[in-house]
Write a structure and sequence with these properties.
By secondary structure, the chain is mainly beta. The protein has 1 helix and 14 strands, in the order E-E-H-E-E-E-E-E-E-E-E-E-E-E-E. The chain has one helix at about 15-25; strands spanning about 5, 10, 30, 35-40, 40-45, 55-65, 70-75, 80-85, 85-95, 100-105, 110-115, 120-125, 130-135, 150. The strands form 3 sheets. The chain has a 6-stranded mixed sheet, with no helix packed on it. It has a 6-stranded mixed sheet with strand order 2-3-11-8-13-6, with helices on one face. The chain has a two-stranded antiparallel sheet with strand order 4-5.
């Protein structure tokens, strides 16, 4: 049976509502963002309003072209991903399902991807420049006891990490 690829649900009511939706539905939710622009430049603002927790952590990472960081999942932690530079293809999958969600996020597709536990997820850089991922997680990383399980990037047969034509 071929893997079915779906788009995540969209929430325009902000990251706090999207977080609740993601946890209730046990699926990823995308929060589209709008640019604020004037003669000084542009910005994306208040993307994580209402979701910050004292035990959370904010990170930024760069992912090189051709890199696939997948698959992993968490027991406790919800991820909030914002791609600020370049673009990434986000893949999300619920254990045992014959479908997966796919969303490209980045400079030309701004927003927040909300990924609740225990969904498998990962990212592949889109294009020929590095991607910069700014992300908030609801539980800080604990090196002594990481809240993470991993599997190979190709563990989900048929997931299109490469360019899809047509």
């Amino acid at each position: 049976m071929a893997l079915e690829i779906r788009k995540p649900k969209v929430c325009t009511d902000g990251a706090a509502r999207a977080h609740q939706m993601a946890r209730d539905l046990l699926e990823p939710v995308f929060v589209p963002a709008s640019f604020f622009a004037d003669d000084r430049g542009w910005s994306l603002m208040n993307l994580l309003q209402g979701v910050m927790a004292p035990e959370g952590q904010i990170n930024y990472s760069t992912q090189y072209p051709g890199v696939i960081k997948a698959w992993h999942r968490h027991t406790l932690q919800t991820d909030f991903w914002i791609c600020l530079r370049g673009h990434i293809k986000v893949g999300v999958q619920k254990e045992g399902e014959a479908f997966a969600w796919l969303q490209v996020i980045g400079e030309k597709a701004p927003g927040v991807m909300v990924i609740p536990p225990p969904l498998w997820h990962g990212a592949a850089t889109v294009g020929e420049e590095p991607a910069g991922l700014f992300y908030y997680v609801t539980h800080a990383y604990n090196a002594a006891s990481p809240d993470e399980q991993r599997r190979a990037y190709d563990a989900l047969a048929g997931f299109p990490w490469g360019v899809r034509h047509g």
